[in-house]
């Protein structure tokens, strides 16, 4: 399933204007079934040929559909869709690096350590990796290709290269990941307390409300059944000199950036998991860039 991703810029404005019309939306729907020429579209829409041709041209101008010459009774123009979905990313991707910041996007299969309890599994872009519900699958050589990782409880730990310049101190650190609870198939009422630790210090616990499914994630492959987990929520853990925050909301001031002692270690440890003693022990799903709704792995940003 091919998606067109848009940032909130001039291109997005043009595309959204093009689809803000019921006839053009119907054209896109018809082309999702099979290619049509303008005569066929006009007949199905019950519109004049000229009106249909104008609408087709507007969709062509923003590259949502394409037209090619096909031999038939003479040569005729046939229209086809270019995309299955249009996605507007309203969040800012933190990929710009300056001399006071470093950024790493870690693949979810590149964990350093793990403790896994069934239900559990690793899923690649095209198939499962190893056996489902077998913790031994988490040690498969192919685990680095994982795009979805799930378990009932336990954790995965990642070690990011420490790029803080010598002689400087970190002012804040942020971890961002797409996550949700883990239930058999999926379950919308299934809370789970998901915790993040940074260098062994607890950064905060977020209670996921659901294991989201039933509606396909924007990036989730078509072979993955819709009654399985489909997508999560993008959550951000941040620690500063003032304390710990989740999505900008202060959780505690008992742990600060100083407590992490980031400058003393060659790596930065990020652990994601569900505690054995959690009140809501509903597991977790962790999504990679080719599953779910967000095109990313585990993102680490450090400012100095």
UniProtKB/TrEMBL annotation:
UniProt KW keywords: DNA-binding
Database matches in Pfam families: HTH_5
Domain HTH arsR-type, residue spans: 14-92
Domain of life: Bacteria
Alphabetical list of CDD domains matching this protein: HTH_ARSR (cd00090)
InterPro entries: ArsR-like_HTH, HTH_ArsR_DNA-bd_dom, WH-like_DNA-bd_sf, WH_DNA-bd_sf
An example molecular function term from Gene Ontology annotations: DNA-binding transcription factor activity
UniProt-recorded name of the protein: Predicted transcriptional regulator
Organism from which the protein derives: Salipaludibacillus aurantiacus
């Amino acid at each position: 399933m091919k998606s067109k991703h848009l940032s909130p810029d001039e291109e997005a404005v043009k595309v959204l204007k093009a689809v803000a019309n019921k006839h053009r939306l119907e054209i896109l729907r018809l082309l999702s079934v099979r290619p049509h020429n303008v005569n066929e579209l006009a007949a199905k829409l019950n519109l004049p040929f000229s009106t249909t041709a104008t609408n087709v041209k507007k969709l062509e101008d923003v590259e949502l559909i394409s037209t090619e010459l096909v031999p038939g009774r003479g040569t005729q123009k046939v229209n086809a869709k270019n995309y299955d979905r249009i996605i507007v990313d309203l969040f800012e991707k933190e990929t710009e690096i300056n001399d006071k910041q470093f950024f790493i996007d870690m693949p979810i299969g590149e964990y350093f350590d793990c403790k896994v309890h069934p239900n559990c599994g690793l899923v690649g872009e095209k198939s499962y990796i190893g056996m489902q519900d077998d913790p031994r699958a988490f040690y498969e050589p192919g685990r680095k290709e994982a795009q979805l990782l799930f378990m009932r409880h336990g954790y995965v730990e990642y070690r990011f290269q420490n790029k803080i310049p010598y002689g400087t101190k970190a002012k804040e650190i942020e971890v961002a990941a797409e996550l949700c609870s883990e239930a058999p198939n999926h379950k919308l009422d299934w809370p789970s307390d998901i915790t993040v630790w940074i260098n062994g210090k607890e950064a905060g616990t977020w209670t996921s409300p659901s294991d989201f499914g039933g509606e396909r994630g924007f990036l989730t492959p078509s072979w993955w059944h819709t009654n399985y987990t489909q997508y999560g929520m993008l959550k951000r853990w941040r620690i500063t000199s003032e304390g710990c925050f989740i999505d900008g909301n202060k959780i505690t001031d008992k742990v600060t950036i100083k407590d992490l002692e980031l400058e003393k270690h060659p790596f930065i440890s990020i652990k994601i998991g569900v505690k054995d003693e959690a009140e809501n022990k509903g597991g977790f799903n962790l999504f990679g860039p080719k599953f779910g709704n967000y095109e990313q792995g585990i993102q680490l940003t450090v400012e100095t």
